[in-house]
């Protein structure tokens, strides 16, 4: 996804930065997988690339936090955590409604434990559902640092596009974010081409 | 027994990281540079993560997925039941209505939920530490590679760069061991990953492999921080 040349809001910029950070971390994990799954002789591979992809990701994530605060929970986990509270209340109410004369301590304890178990089972079932419906097994790049080069260049292009659209005179948060993006861009660059004399 | 092998292998990795940190400290006394500070911090972080992975693999309370084991379920429900029982008995003795009893029950659950969760975490940590210590004391420690175990104090007169190369060599040895631990863990895993994307998916759902993966990244960053520092022009 390319950033449009129009000005983006802080939330849009933060979302794009988080997406870039995610790609950086995925590339690092891909290199880890290549190291762990291959026959390892001598020094472990790709330490420079893994280190700098994650440093870059840390800085774009910091820029996103500067612009829009902590990332909201997303996907299945957010849905599950939102649903678990009403689920607990419904189970608690259902148990009290089913028992004649609920105003006794033993019934209250049973209702609380019943709703606790109901939520626990709900969470476990949703976890098992998530495993059953895992995304299709993507093909790993697993070709070492050279294979990730086009992806890293794409990340840097996206960061360049953001630097062109970010309004530096908007406020201090935008200026700080721009600084973080520039630093991240350098780290991502070092993942594929470590400079002779870095700073 | 798979957990035992995992803990012994993780312990070897922790000792290598500790050796790398000690060697870095002995080589860079008084050097305050962002990259050297980063190397120290990342090594410390890697050691913490590997220690958490050891404790998690020996936990009697949590599965690596974060769900409670039977022991954890019994522990938490016993505390919750005791809290609710005590509160509702008080209302019952004061001849409170059913509405009051429900309100007090809900309030009690809200009040005790966080302390119970925190107490479970603390108890889990304590039990995990004891079980890890029991395993590591039962098995003979693997000898560290030559040149890693002891810091050669006579080498203090050597130029700093060769000494930092030894630090990176020790970090490489630690990474090799972390990789061996990862393979040991993943080979027996029901959700064994077949690609990097699979591994990332699994790291979101399994605290042991997440800690191992993050420790590996920290080791990469420590090694790279040392590499950057040694490549800086010095006058």
3D structure, described in words:
The complex is a heterodimer of chains A (199) and B (235). With 199 residues, chain A is mainly α. Chain A folds into two domains: 10-73 and 139-192; 75-132. Chain A is 72% helix and 0% strand. Chain A is built from six helices and no strands. Chain A has helices at 10-37, 47-68, 75-98, 105-132, 145-165, 172-192. Chain B has 235 residues and is mainly α. Chain B has helices at 2-27, 34-57, 70-93, 98-138, 160-187, 196-203, 207-231. Chain B starts with a helix and ends with a helix. Chains A and B meet through helix 1, helix 2 and helix 4 of A and helix 3, helix 4, helix 5, helix 6 and helix 7 of B.
Q: Which helices and strands, and how do they pair?
A:
The complex is a heterodimer of chains A (199) and B (235).
Chain A (H helix, E strand, L loop, with lengths): L9 H28 L9 H22 L6 H24 L6 H28 L12 H21 L6 H21 L7
Chain B lengths: L1 H26 L6 H24 L12 H24 L4 H41 L21 H28 L8 H8 L3 H25 L4
Helix pairs in contact in B: 1-2, 1-5, 2-4, 2-7, 3-4, 5-7
Oligomer: heterodimer
Total strand count of chain B, please? 0
Q: What is the number of independent domains of chain A? A: 2
Please tell me what the overall shape of chain A is: elongated
Give me the number of helical elements of chain A. 6
In percent, how helical is the residue content of chain B?
A: over 70%
Strand residue percentage of chain B: under 5%
Radius of gyration of chain A: 24 Å
Low-confidence segments of chain B = none
Largest protein interface, residues of each chain? A-B, 54 and 54 residues
State the total count of DSSP E strands of chain A: 0
Largest sheet of chain A: none
Number of separate domains of chain B: 1
Helix content of chain A: over 70%
User: What pattern of helices and strands is seen along the backbone of chain A?
Assistant: HHHHHH
How far apart the termini of chain A lie comes to 31 Å
Which radius of gyration of chain B do the C-alpha atoms yield? 24 Å
Largest sheet of chain B: none
Q: Output the structural class of chain B.
A: mainly alpha
Overall average pLDDT of chain A:
82
Strand content range of chain A: under 5%
């Amino acid at each position: 996804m390319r950033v449009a040349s129009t000005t983006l809001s802080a939330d849009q910029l933060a979302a794009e930065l988080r997406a870039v950070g995610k790609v950086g971390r995925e590339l690092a994990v891909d290199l880890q997988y290549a190291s762990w799954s291959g026959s390892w002789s001598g020094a472990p591979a790709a330490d420079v690339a893994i280190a700098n992809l994650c440093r870059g990701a840390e800085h774009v994530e910091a820029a996103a936090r500067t612009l829009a605060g902590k990332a909201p929970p997303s996907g299945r986990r957010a849905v599950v955590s939102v649903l678990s509270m009403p689920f607990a209340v419904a189970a608690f109410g259902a148990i009290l409604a089913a028992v004649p004369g609920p105003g006794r301590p033993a019934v209250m304890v049973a209702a609380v434990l019943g709703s606790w178990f109901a939520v626990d089972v709900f969470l476990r079932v949703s976890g098992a559902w998530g495993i059953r419906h895992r995304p299709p097994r993507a093909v790993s790049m697993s070709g070492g640092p050279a294979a990730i080069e086009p992806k890293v260049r794409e990340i840097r292009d996206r960061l360049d596009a953001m630097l062109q659209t970010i309004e530096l005179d908007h406020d201090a948060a935008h200026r700080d974010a721009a600084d973080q993006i520039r630093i991240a861009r350098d780290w991502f660059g070092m993942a594929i081409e470590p400079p002779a004399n870095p700073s | 027994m798979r957990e035992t092998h995992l803990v012994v292998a993780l312990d070897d990795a922790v000792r290598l990281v500790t050796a790398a940190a000690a060697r870095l400290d002995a080589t860079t006394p008084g050097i305050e540079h962002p990259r050297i500070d980063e190397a120290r911090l990342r090594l410390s972080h890697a050691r913490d993560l590997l220690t958490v992975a050891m404790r998690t693999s020996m936990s009697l309370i949590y599965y690596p997925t974060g769900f409670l084991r039977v022991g954890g379920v019994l522990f938490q429900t016993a505390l919750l039941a005791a809290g609710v029982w005590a509160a509702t008995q008080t209302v019952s003795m004061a001849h409170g209505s059913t509405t009051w009893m429900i309100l007090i029950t809900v309030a009690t659950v809200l009040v005790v939920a966080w302390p119970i969760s925190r107490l479970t975490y603390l108890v889990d940590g304590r039990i995990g530490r004891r079980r890890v210590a029991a395993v590591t004391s039962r098995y003979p420690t693997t000898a560290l590679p030559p040149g890693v175990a002891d810091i050669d104090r006579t080498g203090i007169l050597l130029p700093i760069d060769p000494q930092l190369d030894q630090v990176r060599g020790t970090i490489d040895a630690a990474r090799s061991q972390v990789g061996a631990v990862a393979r040991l863990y993943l080979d027996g895993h029901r959700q064994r990953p077949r690609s990097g994307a699979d591994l990332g998916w699994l790291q979101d759902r399994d605290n042991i492999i997440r800690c191992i993966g993050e420790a590996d990244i920290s080791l990469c960053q420590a090694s790279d921080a040392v590499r950057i520092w040694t490549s800086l022009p010095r006058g």
